[in-house]
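Subject: Putative sugar kinase YihV

B.,
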Amino acid sequence: MSERRGVIAAGNMLVDHVHQIVKWPEPGWLTEITRSERSTGGAPLNVLLTLAKMRTGLPLQAVGLIGEDHDGDYVMAMLEQYHVNRQHVQRTSFAPTSMTQVMTDPSGQRTFFHSPGANRLLDLPAFDGLESNMKIFHLGYLLLLDSLDLPDAEYGTRSARLLAQMQQQGYHTSLDLVSRQGDPRYQPLVMPALPWLDYLVINELEAGEFSGHTMRKDDGSPDSEAIGQVARQLLEAGVRQRVVIHCPEGAYGIEPGSPGMWVPSVTLSQEEIVGSVGAGDAFCAGLLYGSHENWTLIDSIKLAHACARASLLCANAIDGAKTLAELTLDIQQSH
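Prediction pasted inline below.
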């Protein structure tokens, strides 16, 4: 039997309408939009197009649900342009393509106004008959996939059932969450999925919401000990291979039987950051590539940092993505 190879990314597919604004306005007041552009968004598209732009020749496949509208046409065109298999991207007339209006202020801070659209209807039948020779199955974002977030009598949630099915079919499974403050569903939706995961890649905000712990010290710096504690808890709760929690200053990674490690990032100044849309997904793409290629955890995190840093230099999630050769050079020059 030939070695499994390639990445399937599934879940939230949307179009980001990204606007640069002069400043965030007070309620009732106006602010100017200085620049607008459209780009693909959501975990599957961001991860797949970042991997495609790395030009490694890795087989890539998308799974999702979009509307029969102009934004849906745009998603399909982008997948075709980057040679991503779109056979399992289905279209529906019952809902529009999911869309987010992203407001980015001069500091790079972004605010999202999200319309869930067709993503609410994505359900288990969409995942039948996927390529059986692919290696990694990545799902994002939990808490934004209404049908898959529903309860399941046997597995706890329908997303946990899906991840169990994928793992039982031989895929290495991976999960990302959405950053949503104060959402009480983090524990009930995430816990059932953990035993069916090989990789969990989340940010400090999601880790804080999930655990209830504060992820930063009083001086505002990341608390690597607290982040590491949450990472260990998630690993002990069932994740099989790697848990990585990232923030702008670095990332904490842990594997079974290892003490865990904090890997600092090369920080950018506020003046250098154009936008942070998709930086977390770019990080995830780098980590998944390293994991796919059986790189060490530290090398995988370094690549993930390089992918995220490249993403921060552009307003949308995709334009900053670099080739693997360029990313490798960036890593060498930063150490």
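The longest strand covers residues 33-41.

T.
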